[in-house]
Amino acid sequence: MLSIKYIQENKEKVLERLGIKNFKGEEIIDKALELDNLRKTTQAELDRQLAEANNLAKIIGSLFKEGKTREANEAKQKTAQLKESTKELGLKLESAEKELNLVLVQIPNLPHESVPAGKGAEDNCIVKTHGEIPVMDNTALPHWDLAKKYDIIDFETGVKITGAGFPVYKGKGAKLQRALINFFLDEAEKAGFFEVQPPIMVNEDSGFGTGQLPDKEGQMYHAEIDNLYLVPTAEVPVTNIFRDVILNRKDLPVKYTAYTPCFRREAGSYGKDVRGLNRLHQFDKVEIVCIDHPENSYHTLEEMVKHAESLIFKLELPYRIVKLCGGDMSFTSALTYDFEVYSGAQKKWLEVSSVSNFESFQANRLKLRFKDDNDKRNQLAHTLNGSALALPRIVAALLENNQTAEGIKIPKVLVPYTKFEMIN
RNA sequence: GGAGAGAUGGCAGAGCGGUCGAAUGCGGCGGUCUUGAAAACCGUUGUCCGGGCAACUGGACCGGGGGUUCGAAUCCCUCUCUCUCCGCCA
Q: Can you give the pLDDT at residue A309?
């Protein structure tokens, strides 16, 4: 969430930036400022009274020691009213803080200066396109048909075991998954990312830290008995490694990578773009997560973009990089690049990665800070993350674009991992 | 799941209900000494919220919440977590 101090000092700018995200903030910002004001004045008064009470307690203590019981008892009476009023003020402060928090949590992150205005996906800005868009004749099969033809992905059995969106990968299909995961992890390691294997269930605090909770419960599967959530992305457990952490300046940037399965309820998304691998409830993804100094975070974002791009490039898939407009960005992001690969038989672009800088929006929730040498105060770090990459749509594009009369060709770079060159 | 023990500063580990934000040791940082390093010695060392340009200053924090008391790290209740033993188990 945004820090109230920042809002205080930059109200006009905040409103203007929120406008880019099509968020009308006037009312809620005013409410936040008002509550913060109440919070401050209440605390000032409470602190004053507490100081007085502390002082009295000390005096009473020494009076008792000196045997001046009468004076002590007299002084005691004064503390009674202080006790009353501090209790009241304490409650007032608590409720002001709570209410303020409730309000702050509803304000989205501010988009970066460079983010274009826009309503939705149609206003996004294509920053780069690479590769030939394959021209396939009408006999070209979409990946769900190829999956069946070569018996490598079994959607129906997944439905039986669990439900729609939980496919069973078989034989070379399963090996392809494993190959991609290992390839992505190896590449991440080469690029300087430290591999971790986090839990794939998280508690509420973690969900809150990265911004999935509150309000976005619909996205995550919830195990109610234990009050745990299945992760929608490794971003959640990996970033939360650093919840309540104060890093040293010299530890920055932190660069982590993790493979996890990801679980998404996708409540309310039906229609034809859910066909096959296009939208699943469970899928595999290798994620990269960075934590950096505010001055360097956009440089790191560019590095992450380069890394994700290199993966798609090596897989020899046609792709484009899209900078999201304000209206299409997530609640928590300040700047997001999406990566899309072209899936030849479906004849459409599929999002396979999303790389974002959250600036201090998550860090503020996470209380993730670092010690700055120049500044006495600990500063909020910037958090970033991106997919590198999500598997299913990569597989969809690979299957479709590489289909031949003899079978499906595996990209050269993957062959050492799959140990086969062709799915046939 | 059953029984017991515990939770204090980066770590280890003290702490008669008042002078405890907290002894001591280790670690970290700065310095003296040294050609350099080590050792030794000296100093320093948490977080958050207010006020102040600042020096500085008020308040809060000893797992979380509540209570007793003029006063709680210290007493009581409760929750959570950790550890040990038993059971079950990949």
A: 97
